[in-house]
Amino acid sequence: MIIFVVIESLIAVSAVGTVLRVVRAYRTGIIVGDHNRWIAAEEALHTVLPHHVVALAIGEARVWLALMRCFTRRDGRSREFTYGASIRPVVVAMSGLVVVEGVIAEAVLLAVFGHRWWLWLVAAVHIYAVVWLLGVVASFTTLPHRVGPDAILLSDSIFGEHTIGLELISRVDRRRTRNIGRSGMAIDHDARGRLCYGDGSVILELDEVTHIRGMPVRELAISVDHPADFVADIHAAIGPAGVD
Questions:
Q1: What does DSSP say about strands 151-155 and 192-196: parallel, antiparallel, or unpaired?
Q2: N or C: which end of the chain has fewer CB within 10 A?
Q3: Chain CA centroid to CA 83, Å
């Protein structure tokens, strides 16, 4: 009994210490690092968890936030810009296919195996997949890009956010970029990056290399539903002499 109590106490102390370390790193990211809450939370969790686990945790939280904002968020906020209009029908169709596939699969399994407890588990997995896909669709409008007084915040759907200081931007312009490969953040070895859901519509050029997810970036293509307004807001935030 004494050994059990000692072991449990050590586990509790270790857990509390880990939580405190994460909270301290989070507060440091907010105050000293000048990060937004999502970026600060991601960096704080990286101090105790592997990268893939952190990505899943952040994605899970943002899925539910994106879905809840469908009912609570007000439209028409200034300096917020949606994206993903060209790819949204594809993701919606994928969600429908997953629903249909799930119903068919459940019917076949029920006919073959009869009532089994694990059929509920299979159904839960299908429902969970649909929730994630709907969260991705919702995030295109409920987790938008934002232009702030000092930086732009670029949303990577449910997978996180990235900030770029306005002082780093040397050029911003409308330019259509074919998105070859997966959607979301992708960075090439020549310091060119893409944050695209569908094709890119805006190009950012930076005065100096900045690091996003540990990779250097000098030029970034972004998908924005209203690129002209996005570019105009960045120009207005920086000032007439700020960018080329």
A1: unpaired
A2: N
A3: 13
Is residue 199 within 8 Å of 223, Cβ to Cβ?
Answer: yes
3-state secondary structure 191-242: CEEEEECCCEEEEEEEEEEEEECCEEEEEEEECCCCHHHHHHHHHHHHCCCC
**How far is 91 from 93, CA to CA, in rounded Å?**
5
* Cα 32 to the center of its chain, rounded Å: 23
CA atoms within 13 A on the CB side of 125: 9
Residue 200, strand partner residues: 177
**What string of pLDDT tens digits covers the 244 residues of the chain?**
566 555 655 555 555 555 555 555 555 554 444 456 666 666 666 666 777 777 788 888 889 989 998 887 665 566 889 998 888 888 888 888 888 888 888 888 888 777 888 888 888 888 888 888 899 999 999 999 999 888 899 999 988 888 888 989 999 999 988 877 678 888 887 888 889 998 889 999 998 888 877 788 899 999 999 999 999 999 998 876 556 5
* 75's tokens: 């439209």
194 Rama class: left (phi>0) / alpha (psi -120 to 50) / beta: beta
**Beta carbons within 10 angstroms of residue 241's beta carbon:** 6
Token pair recorded at residue 206: 């930076």
**SS3 label, residue 135:** helix
What the block records as the tokens of 94 is 């994928």
Cα three-residue angle 223-224-228, rounded to 5 degrees: 125
CB 132 within 8 A of CB 157: no
| Spacing of C-alpha 231 from chain mean position | 22
Q: Classify 64 as helix, strand or coil.
A: helix
Question: 81 phi and psi, to 5 degrees?
Answer: -135, 120
